[in-house]
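Retro notes
What went well: the complex prediction finally ran end to end.
Inputs used:
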Amino acid sequence: MIQISPHAEAALTCTLDERSLYLRRLVLGSVRSAGRGHVGPALSLIEMVRVLYDDVLRIDPQNPRDPERDRAILSKGHGCLALYALLADRGFFPLSELDGFCGSDSILGGHPEYGMVPGVEASTGALGHGLSIGVGLALAARMRERSYRTFVLLGDGEINEGSVWEAAMGAAKHGLDNLVAMIDYNKLQSYGPTDYVLPLEPLADKWRSFGFAVQEINGHDVGALRTVLKQVPAVPGKPTAVICHTVKGKGLPPAESNADWHHKNKLSDSELDAIRVAVGDF
Amino acid sequence: MRNTAMNMVHKLAARDERVLYIGSDPGAGTLRAMSKEFPKRHLIEGISEAHIIGMSAGLAMEGFVPYVNTIATFLTRRCYEQVAVDLCLHNLPVRLIANGGGLVYAPLGPTHQAIEDIAIMRALPNMTVICPCDADEAARMMDKTLDWTGPIYIRLGKGGDAIVSKAEHGFEIGKAILMRPPGDVLMVTTGIMLQRAIAAADLLAAQGVRAGILHMHTVKPLDTEALLQAIRGIKLLATLEEHVPSGGLGSAVAETLIDKLGSGLPAMLRLSLPDRFMHNYGSQDSLLKKHGLAPNAIATSIEHALAASRTSSPQLHST
């Protein structure tokens, strides 16, 4: 019998602070403007991205190609609305770009593209690519004797892909302790529960057995994320996996743990009302 | 050809610290000398092609020039999405050295026979596709890969192929080599079909048919200028390839002619493998012979097509 992690329970019940609500307003504003977007996958991811960009990554929005910058790859590219909100808020591009999401001349597509969006390190969208690219970036840092770290954000459905586990073996082989895999474990993929589609448990043991130092936290707990991400590598000589227990659609009650909100098209008036109640006027 | 290409990776690595060799699970001792001289740049990463391509993309993003090497079918079919997205979409300088292009692995059966690799690689934006004909040309080709922008697919032959390329022709990526001036016939070849074309041209010459040969070692980007120049005045254009008819050299040549000329095309004969998997083993030569790609059969096919072209309006022939 698999035990439900206390972190998963905490993710369900924890409250969000004003900055987290603000970021959700940005995400949902993009969805309203575009009439489409992956809502659930972005809302589960916001605190992970927020803490990375606010507190952890050594980056300069004015110099987004600084060779010494930390690298972050959103391997679950369909969560891009969360990334776009953070990048815009941190000044990589104007906030007004968010309103153009998925527009024909926008820099912001339904999946993030390198070369189009300042701050985006790799084009993602097809799943199971980011960790391998991250291994390459981390190995390059080692070979070039550079101090930057590489963070890769993965979806739980994404790690169905065998290439993720090939990459995990590669990361462990090279002892890449400058590489961090963050898994957005919201337990709900496009069709339905991960346990139904392709069971992942025991997930922490899997990563451990692949040679990673594993941390498990409530992925909406900003303080816990800061603590864990500021202490990488968790074990010298090993890559780190941070399993972030999250809630798909977190912060928006009708969307929480609801597969129907994986991707949304036009938001109805009642849905817009529900959003205003949940995150404030937007 | 394979040993030459591998040794060139070592030489390039000695010349330029950006060069990496990345193998999946190659034969024992592959590039042993490089592994001793540059152990950190000789990477063996396991039977995990999808991962290796992604990892190579990451390394290339940081300024390295990875030469990734495994069997052609595994480097194309297995990890096609990674090649498309990680390499081509990002336009990164990763070189894919594909062992056993075409029917080299004939005895090992259809899982190891790369018969559609040119088609699927050339379909990808930003990809360059090169098929050297022999070891000498492979060496000249490898020398030019170091600073080429974007990914390159390199289709290697078996090794031990007769040396027919000439140093004085040099090698430039995307520049075809006119091996023999065109007569009534022009054969366009790639890879090790050049040797067969030369033998076929000799047979045709004995029959009084002058056949030129344009060696299109780079299938993408195709040397349009050389092609248009070489077809002037010919009566028959024959393409020769160790590849299925869809999407390979013959397709590329036909597409180019249609795009550039629109009308007034020369009669065209596409000689290729059939559109099916091979279910015979034997050797590369025996399978080529079985499918009409040995010099005798090539010459005969060309004679027949030439005769037909004289009695009918220009048309496309295919085998």
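What we learned: The mean pLDDT of chain B is 96.
What to try next: split runs per interface for comparison.
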